[in-house]
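User: Hey, my collaborator sent me this sequence without any context and asked if I could get a structure. I don't really work with proteins. Can you help?
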Amino acid sequence: MGQLLSSCPAWNEIEVSLFGPGYGECVLIHLGESRWLIVDACIDRKSRHPPVLNYLNQLGVDATDAVKLIVASHWHDDHVRGLAQIVESCSQAHFCLPEAMTSTEFLTIISAYQYPVTETGSGGSELFKVLRILQRRQSISTPKSILADMCLWSEPLRDGTTCKIYALSPSQAASLLAKRELGSLLQEGNERKRLFVRGPNHVAVVLWVEIGSLRILLGSDLEETTNPNMGWSVILSESTCVDDGQANLFKVPHHGSETGHCGAAWKKLLSPRPVALLTPFSKSHLPRQTDKERICGLTDKAYITKSQRPKSMKRPKTVQDRTRPYQVYGKATHTT
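Assistant: No problem. I've predicted the 3D structure and written it out in structure-token form, which is a compact way to encode the shape of the chain:
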């Protein structure tokens, strides 16, 4: 195990933190040597502030320079809410998003739907703010479009190894389908101003992180169907980024739901009994009891960021500490 949660990780310590539920889901990874990766966003419902920024501040980390890469895995509200605050604070970070989110169709939609119409606003509104922030900057390149088998980050470490971050999705076919669906939204002419594409979610960015001998698989909200050109199926059959190693830690996709589950991915991409992390999504009652039983049947090191037990049930303090929102769950030390 690593250091105390209030301590900044050592230069050779790889720390994985999962924030949620609040509103959203956010992954923070210390890649080593004071370099950080943020995937998606989450906000505290009361403060309206991303807890990931509060956590970095608590550690004494200057997010302005320390966060090197920010990835928006897809456009759903519960993964982008608060993203503009994160991008604004992490002014030296490169920003990546799925290729479909750089299309003319997508940019037209978020320009039209830039104003929030509900209490939490729309995904289009948040992403419009992000792009406006990036347009004001001169020192950082334009957002990077993501497709499967792209290397998003590669940096040498002082111990002679290399930190690499690959995108395993979306596939070309998934991106094309997403753009067609976005085009259909533009043609509908309805008054709905929430960015919504009919499921299943094939455009979500799955990330594969390699740091020395450590492997981390971030499943985003990628869903699985029988289509061999989509979802987890195409990753298993065509990905060229995954080496012979298996991931030691898995951010379970789609809040542990059955639609995001792929048994073959657990066998091929993950080591036996990996650390499995997930956030619940109460609006959809995820994960369900059957989901919990399935995941716990695959590993005895599964953690959720918030208990779904009735409030009347009392639990030991140690259990409460492990289930509170915004808790940091995974710490692993990489040494030479």
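In plain terms: The chain has one domain: 13-333. You can pass these tokens on to your collaborator as they are.
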